Amino acid sequence: MPEPVLSIRGLRKAFGAHVVLGGIDLDIAVGSIVGLLGPNGSGKSTLLDTVTGFVPKDAGRIELDGRAIESLDPGAISRRGLVRTFQLPRMPARMSVREVMLAAERSGSGLADALLGRRAPSALAVDGLLERLLLTPVAEQPASAISGGQKKLLSIAMALANRPRLLCLDEPTAGVHPNLRQEIMALLRDANAQGVTLVVVEHDMAFIRGLCPRCVVLDRGELIADCAPDDLADHPRVVEAYLGRAGARAARKAA
Ligand SMILES: Nc1ncnc2c1ncn2[C@@H]1O[C@H](COP(=O)(O)OP(=O)(O)O)[C@@H](O)[C@H]1O
Ligand SMILES: [Mg+2]
């Protein structure tokens, strides 16, 4: 495997007696796109939360580009290039969509780049991202007042404006109009072509197939599969995780 941008070893997290991550080992190759799947409650968001420093882990080692990040806070982790989006994005109440984007662009050093003359002024990049995600018509509205799907799009645009090297997306298309899913996929592909490694939590299998050559599946705190999306349907533990034992037996009989 090419050099991992992210390396996770023995990652454990429990909420009380409920073990949500039971010792996860996972490497994400630099430049890759990896789908992170699993039934509801299997620990996908908790995995992103612990890796990005939003939730303290119980044990384990997490390295970004070979350097330990497990003692860093979320802001420091983001400045090192590991950025994430949330399943339910929250937006500041008093800022417009455009202001939120400009703030994200500035915190990602876009302004410094612009001042140093390395690229066009950041407002242009912000306008381009807003246009591409069909957010131009709501650009002057409060970010907290747009629809759930639009917040999702805005959160992806904000994350990209931060110039991540590794971007983890938690259900990027949930609640987004189906017409826009292709646009999100194209945007993520472009980001990847420019060198951004992606980890995508997603339930839409067409989206996963279209974007991710590799996917890993979580179930009850364990990684139970690591394969191409097309091989998932033949994976007994994956079928069982989604359908339960009885369902898996029924599916085998029907096949
Ligand atoms: N802060 C929390 N306190 C207690 N239990 C939690 C907390 N966050 C998540 N959980 C539990 O951990 C399990 C995994 O949740 P989550 O990581 O959100 O799953 P997924 O994203 O795969 O749907 C669920 O059973 C959930 O109820
Ligand atoms: Mg989740």
From TrEMBL:
Pfam families: ABC_tran (PF00005). The keyword Zinc does not apply. This is ABC transporter ATP-binding protein. Residues 6-245 form the ABC transporter domain. The keyword Transport applies. GO terms for molecular function: ATP binding; ATP hydrolysis activity. It comes from the Bacteria. InterPro entries: AAA+_ATPase (IPR003593), ABC_AA/LPS_Transport (IPR051120), ABC_transporter-like_ATP-bd (IPR003439), ABC_transporter-like_CS (IPR017871), P-loop_NTPase (IPR027417). It comes from Enterovirga aerilata. Keywords: ATP-binding, Nucleotide-binding, Transport. PANTHER family: CONSERVED COMPONENT OF ABC TRANSPORTER FOR NATURAL AMINO ACIDS (PTHR45772:SF9), CONSERVED COMPONENT OF ABC TRANSPORTER FOR NATURAL AMINO ACIDS-RELATED (PTHR45772). Belongs to the ABC transporter superfamily. One of its GO terms (cellular component) is plasma membrane. PROSITE patterns: ABC_TRANSPORTER_1, ABC_TRANSPORTER_2.
